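My current task is to audit a protein record that another person submitted. Alongside the sequence sits a line of tokens, each denoting a local backbone shape. Where you disagree with what is written, explain briefly why. This is what I was given:
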Amino acid sequence: MLSVTMTAASKTTPEAVARHYDYITPFYEIIGSRSLHLGYWPAGESGGTFAESQQRFTDLMIQQLGAQKGHRVLDIGCGLGEPATRLAQSSGCMVEGITISPRQAAQAERWASLHGTSGQTSFICGNAMALPFQTGSFDAAWALESIFHMPDRAAVLREVARVLHPGGRLLIADIVVSEKATPEDQAFLQQAFVARSFISPEDYPYLIRDTGYEVEQVLDISQNVMATFGAVSAAIREKEEEVRRAYSDEFLAAIQEQWTRITETAMRCMGYIVLTAKRV
């Protein structure tokens, strides 16, 4: 999710990503929900809260993944566990989440306990570059707005392919950049999202095919997520006092100022895809 700490892309280590989320998570809980991803608006619709749009996004991802009761699903970059919990509740599957932040893993376990999915969900602190799971042990995996943090996309995708059984499904929801993005735009967006890299939507299918999968579908939902930026701006205005109490006057002023540039850059040259693939 978005950053106000402006970590340089060259310093976006796994540890830096963990520190960023530990710092910024209370802000997103104040203005949205425990789902650390963008929101979704169906075509032709607008309005509603940021939190409501995030839940719609999660529900869309659940539909696209198609997990069923008895399936074992890997959540790569599980955050605070809300999407995983919602997936387990709606499908009856087993979900195992991995995050680079020990604090997030503990918070996700508490959230699952509160919502009655402790028997279906588990969360660990670990590195997606070296998954601590047996080969061919998962039916499906998803990465919701997490893979851009990874040091090596191809290495992560191959590692996920290792733990999926043949025919297992992979779902990726990811930010992409268009040909309109200048090098300066690309660098800024990487800083703003604490991202190691972004790629173009045209390059994504080739990356997926080269790492052990057959591409099933690529959905461009760019127009459906862009209202996130206005919704977040509205939520910041509504929750100013709570943000100020949780952080500081300086933090509030900085995020309000930076959000203008993030919004302008994203609207001009950022996109968003949802890709489903099958492990060959």
Residues 249-269 form the longest helix (21 residues).
